[in-house]
Every structure is written in structure tokens, then in C-alpha cells.
Amino acid sequence: MIPLGEYQTLRQAAEELDDLRAFNRAKAALDAGEDELVPAETFKRLLSGESPLRVWRELRGLTQSSLANTSGVNRVQIADIEAGRRKGSLETARKLANALGIAIDDLA
Length: 108
Known about the structure:
Blueprint: H1 4-31, H2 40-47, H3 52-59, H4 64-71, H5 75-83, H6 90-100
């Protein structure tokens, strides 16, 4: 047995590792010039007007916190963009797109 605090720390680290692996797989595919296949459900969510940032983040298996850490964009700002309360600057969109391994136009 291990203390609960240590277990929670290990569990969080494992989730972050999963997030990083998903990101690295997506980035490697893009860097190799491969076209990314998007699941039909993801495509439907984008067409229905759902926040592209949320859709791509969830497709990558990232939490708002892990995306914030990867992109350097504040988690609250990510939440505001996803909720439609803010748009974010062009620089913010660039950072988020790079972190998600997508074109900046995919966030529009």
C-alpha cells in the first residue's frame, strides 16, 4: 500500500503522460506530412458549431490544464475561449494550434 497523496500524484502524472503521448502521436503524423483522419463524430461536432478548441483538445485527449502547460496559454483563457466568452489573440491561437498539432485555421 502507498499513501493516498502519493497515489493521487502518481495518477495525475500518468494522466499527463497519456496526454503527452497523444499529442506526440498527432504531432509526429503532421511532421511526417501525413493527412490526419478525423473521426466522423469529431467532424459532426465541428459542423454543429461546437468550440473548435474544445473539439480538438478533446480529440487529442488533453485536459485544459495539460493544454495550458503545453501551449503556455492560461487555463482560464482556454476555458473562456471554449465557452465563447473570449476570442483570444492571433498569438494565442497560434500557440494553441501549435500545441494541438493543427493549422491555426482549424480553430476558426
